[in-house]
Amino acid sequence: MAKALVNTDLQLPGIKNLYHGKVRDVYTLENDILAMVVTDRISAFDVILPEGIPYKGEILNKIAAKNLDATADIVPNWKIALPDPMVTIGHRCEPLKVEMVIRGYITGSAWRTYSSGQHTICGITLPEGLKENQKFEHPIITPTTKADEGHDEDISKEEIIATGLVSKEDYEQIEAITYKLFERGTQLAERQGLILVDTKYEFGKKDGKIYLIDEIHTPDSSRYFYKDTYDELFAAGQPQRQLSKEFVRKWLMDNGFQGKEGQQIPEMTPEYCDSVTDRYVELYEKLTGDKFEKQPTEDLHTRIEKNVTSWIEKEL
Questions:
Q1: Alpha carbon 70 to chain centroid distance?
Q2: Treating both helix axes as pointing N-terminal to C-terminal, what angle do 56-70 and 168-191 enclose, rounded to 10 degrees?
Q3: 290-313 pLDDT per residue, tens
Q4: Is 146 helix (H, G, I), strand (E, B) or coil?
Q5: pTM greater than 0.85 (yes/no)
Q6: Of 36, 180, 221, 254, which one's alpha carbon is 20 to 30 angstroms from that of 15?
Q7: Please, how many CA atoms are within 13 Å of residue 148, restricted to the half-sphere of its CB?
Q8: What is the pLDDT of residue 146?
């Protein structure tokens, strides 16, 4: 059985800081350079689940890298190199304290909010009579605060600017970039027979310039529907065939867990974890058009440490 990498403690030359995020371990190196290890940890409802998913980190890292390259003409991004399948080396930027969530369709948490009777989301009033998975006339941006710990919170554009969370000038710039990135992501997905339903982008600043940071258009940050069956399923009021992490959230909800106090995370058996790996592989191959080749996972930590150290010694 394949092993999952859930923790790292890399001994790298010139480490200045180490930050363990929900699924990423970020090593700050000299010259304002980051080495981001995308582990096999998986989170849902802002909770890190107890078992890792083999190959998930590599899949996310490769998809993100491919999409960062495919959007670099729209906005500069933090990526410099991939010294290992699970690692991206990039520029350290000062993160803006909002996540730009953009939605082309009403589904997921937005649908749960809307169907509960709350028709205003992040200051945007939605039309009456929407159906689950319906396409918006125009994509909408529903930002969230970027929490260091705990839950991100919905927030409106007006609140962001009024509180100074992000300056008006910076917000308007990342808002325009978000629409352009979503349009590009939609085009890339369509080539693969998919619909980019919703996604999120994170931005930072370096030397006064806006950069796109973190992952982009991965199954952890995005939701995709299959294009060929969308119209038929929507007309019949049936659930969409989708590629995203929503199937994990649904499994948790079906088993009584939504990240609320007192709720117990259901048992993640090896068979269940392997089934999640299969879904991630499916998304990788469908999104990229490339076949995913599973490599040995016995000693991922040593491999990563060796590859990243070699890059640092050569490039820094």
A1: 16
A2: 110
A3: 999 999 999 999 999 999 999 999
A4: coil
A5: yes
A6: 221
A7: 2
A8: 80
